[in-house]
Amino acid sequence: MCQLVGEVVVHLFGWPIPGAVLGMILFFGWLTLRRAGDDSREARAGDLLVKYMPILFVPATVGWVAYGPQVVAQWLPGLVGAFVSWGLTLVLVGWCAQLLRPRRRPAGEAS
């Protein structure tokens, strides 16, 4: 239900984020506000999802089986790309955090 609401909201407002991400945020907020116990419907649904989570790894495994030789043959560009994208993400997140951080004024400066 939260994913559906997220998809509808993203579609209505034209937000540039996936509806599933907004749905997860809504679901997290719901769980935080509700503080559901271990025997709640949400906990049982989560247990069911965790039970079938290995199915999500099937596409990646099929990709490795089908394209494994190409991935192994091109390991260096893949590794360099992974580290460059990781480093770029780290720098950009730090830069954005600096921009969004509230500024402190010196003690003698008037507001």
TrEMBL record:
Pfam families, alphabetized: LrgA (PF03788)
InterPro entries named in the record: LrgA/CidA
Highest taxon listed in the record's lineage: Bacteria
Alphabetic keyword roster: Cell membrane, Membrane, Transmembrane, Transmembrane helix
Keyword Cell membrane appears in the UniProt entry: yes
Membrane spanning residue stretches: 12-33, 45-67, 79-100
Name listed for the protein in its UniProt record: CidA/LrgA family protein
Organism, scientific name: Propioniciclava coleopterorum
